[in-house]
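Budget justification, computational time. The allocation requested in the original proposal was used primarily to generate structure tokens for proteins on the priority list. As evidence of use, we reproduce two of the resulting records. The first is shown immediately below.
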Amino acid sequence: MSTVITEQQLLAMETRYRAALINSLGGFKSVVLLGTANAAGQTNLAIFSSFFHLGANPALCGIIIRPDVAPRHTLNNILETKSYTINHINEGIYRQAHQTSARYGGDESEFVQTGLTPFYVPGIHAPFVQQSHIQLACEFVQRADITLNGTILIIGKIVYIHLPENAIGTDGFIDIEKAGTVTCSGLDSYHTTKRLSRLSYAKPGVLPRDI
């Protein structure tokens, strides 16, 4: 048995059901915590599953911020201070990370509300999550408004990386499984992973080999 869903059926679906369906359709995604603070130092922490790589030279990454009727504290803080952090989520903190999606007020810190610990690096305005095993700091470089659905693409330049020494290989590959990073599917499903293999660089006429 299989299921077929047409565009007309999608349009007729209840809003939350359709959101769950479409969000899980893309498979496993990076899930991270964005740490920010406004100019006065009020901290904010928010979970995002739209973090992606944009380029290595310069080192760029992107994140999609969706439209919302509630105030977007993360976006406001990024635009105000040009500074934010990306913090990988692990098994020890995924429940607290999920809780940051609750709609706290602008004067409430998700760090306080969830029990996660902020820490700072000299020269970087935004807070990191101490319990995260892989952390990076970004400098805001570009905003792109996607008029089709009101979402916003934020592009950042990576200016700082902190990770366990044993998680980075001699070829620069970061073993996120060693660091305990988890992934997600849909809006609320969290997963650990098991690598099948790393494969050699693909060339015409040459079968890939395990490396």
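The second record produced under the same allocation is shown here.
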Amino acid sequence: MPNFKWKGKTAKGEPKSGEMSAAGKDEVIAALRRQGILPSLVTETGAKKVKKQRVTDKDVVVFTRQFATMFIAGIPIVQGLDIMAKQSENKTLGAIIGQIKADVESGTTLADAMKKHPRVFDDLFINLVAAGEAGGVLDGVLLRLANYMEKSMKLKKKVKGAMIYPSIVVTVAVLVIAIIMVFVIPIFAKIFGEMGAQLPAPTRSVIWLSNFLSGIGGLMILGGGVGSFIGIKQYRRTEIGKKKTDAILLKLPIIGDLVRKVAVARFTRTLGTLLNSGVPILDGLEICARSSGNKVVEEVVFDVRKEVSAGKTLAEPLSKADVFPPMVTQMINVGESTGALDQMLVKIADFYDDEVDDSVGNLTTMLEPLLMVFLGTTVGYIVIALYLPIFKMGDTVK
């Protein structure tokens, strides 16, 4: 933790000064006020500067679960935050927890204190904590939050894991073909040129492609690829671009189905967790829309929210949207009819988590042979094209 030098006065007006180690300036001020000192100056000495670390989802999950355990064990909020600030392996998160502790000590609610750090605690987290504080069930809410975040992380890992293997195979295939084209083919082309033999069409096409890639053509392809990547990334930052690319993703043959299942699982789990924690359905739908990760799904959920606010059930407007399968809307309808909507939403989320598992497995199984066939065909064509002139020369000698 950084050190802070401070100056102030007691209630009797006596000047005081000193040095204190704390997570932040607010914590120093709060500590001095508890001692009956009114601080006039608090400055960081810089003796122990904390190197900034990125706060990951895993860090927040660990904090949430440990904090919930302390709260259940009867440890007061301020004391629990103090322990978490000191024992956090991520120094940046530790400093943030220290600032939250100082705010709570000064009379701020836990949710409002966390709201000052939107990069670490999102709207879902803050709203659930606020609902837990209002209902006196903060311990249960924190445990539900930890479970929700852990399952969300697993879902992300499944989708990312499905893309790792194909990406590695494609990258290796492109590198192997590029090395053959740029470094190996020119050697054979020189040998064939010295022989003066008439080359077959496949060999001529491979040599032409090698010359193209070795020259300005390779730079054009590389520049075009990098430019396209940057262009698409910038386009997705715009409102229209994000909406159009997300719509295209949902319509793709295999990936679109996976994206839809991930969106349904995220929506149902988020809304189920919010409702189970006492958050009103309209607030829950707004949070679900903003945390959907897909612009098309976001607009659909906002439209659903409008109709729900007008007095309609949740299932009715959802059934009109193409994003949500009929089974989902029917199960939600049953949940609303029986008064157990939150539990039904969690069941749907669990079901679609398994569906994502199956889709990821099928995608990997399908891509493996396709990539192998592509690599084998390409390398095989190049090898045959290089050996054809040698076979022809052997026939001529005979």
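A brief technical remark on that second record: The mean pLDDT is 84.
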